[in-house]
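Progress note, sequence design subtask.
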């Protein structure tokens, strides 16, 4: 519970409270796995999320060492982001 709460607070810090709830959930899961510092390096992904450019954000997520190391999780989360309209 504490780890999830910490990850969720980190997600809100990175993407804000006005971001689509699905994106907050995805970023929370990413932070749970990689930590806030790790996810904060996804600068382009976060920028595209901030601008509501979900297709571009989903592509950027897959252009990472994280996607190579955990391809199933990265693909699943990328698809969730791509489907935000």
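Output:
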């Amino acid at each position: 519970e504490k780890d999830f709460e910490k990850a969720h607070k980190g997600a809100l810090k990175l993407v804000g409270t006005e971001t689509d709830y699905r994106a907050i959930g995805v970023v929370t899961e990413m932070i749970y796995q990689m930590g806030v510092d790790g996810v904060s390096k996804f600068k382009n992904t976060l920028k595209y999320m901030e601008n509501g450019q979900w297709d571009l954000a989903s592509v950027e997520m897959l252009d990472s060492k994280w996607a190579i190391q955990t391809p199933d999780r990265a693909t699943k989360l990328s698809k969730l982001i791509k489907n935000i309209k």
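The helical segments are 2-15, 21-40, 43-50, 54-62, 65-69, 71-82. Work on this subtask will continue into the next period as scheduled.
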